[in-house]
Design brief:
mainly alpha; Dna Ligase, domain 1; 3 domains; 8 strands
Length: 330
Amino acid sequence: MTKVKYWMALILFGLILIAGGFAWWLLAPSQIQPASIMVEPGDLFYKVVVKLGERRIISSPWLFSKVGVLAGLDRHIIPGRYDFGRRLSNYAVMKKLWRGDIAILGLTIPEGYTLRQIGNLLSTQCGTDIRVFDSLVRDSLFLSSLGVSTGFAEGYLFPETYRFQWGITAAEAIGAMVRQTFVCIDSARLARAGELGYSLHDLLTMASIVESEASALDEYPLIASVYRNRYVSRMKLQADPTVIYGMGGLDRSLLIKDYQFPSRYNTYLYRGLPPTPICSPGLAAMEATLDPAETDYLYFVADGSGRHIFNKTYREHLQDTRRVKGKTSL
């Protein structure tokens, strides 16, 4: 072998070693601890690489950065949370970032949640900006674009399990939940509401009271019948949850003086429905409101077991209230 051929072979061998080493670095999976990084809007690529290195998701951040720039990855990263499993190659990490494979979360909004509770859930579980959420749920222009004409979104964010990306914006989340409300309140339900003398807003408001009062599913129609009977007979609704809502929420039981709290939501002071729903009612509460049980009940009291005792007369109601509370007088 001539000296030239020897050096050429040596260079070729070196190139093969380098290519093999690079291929191994790029494609060989490494064992890592499951970890996540958050790519914030405006994060530069080098900052993302630093985060990956700090969590030990990648090996050789310097090389990862150089290869990523050559591949154009620095121009394609979508903000959001990225979750990484136990065995990943550097190529798999690059592919995940390139595809914008942001974490998808199953977020459940329970029936009866208020805007405040929904906003806190979105903030803690999806990284949504709570300040933007609080602003948009009171933004008349934004809400009107979604079909909500009241200027306040309470009651219009349907309780459901949603698949949201981490970092979903407040506008996207609110839009998805409002649209689900209009999916559930179809033309047949709207027609039935009209037969009862309810507008869409009235339906959600009455259903929110039923939702706040009921716990046992089979009692929804009975509780709905009480409030329907009071409503059509022009009685005050006298719903404790409306008082609590008007007071901004309570972590204690209502006191006698609370029933005089000056709020338009206080249905002990004001006749008819409160100005807005007081929570997000679920489908069961809506169905019960649209098809309440046929009863003469005007009163009910919690029996301490999660259920209620229903009465037609105030005298019977007082007797059961005393018995349940173990008192001889109110």
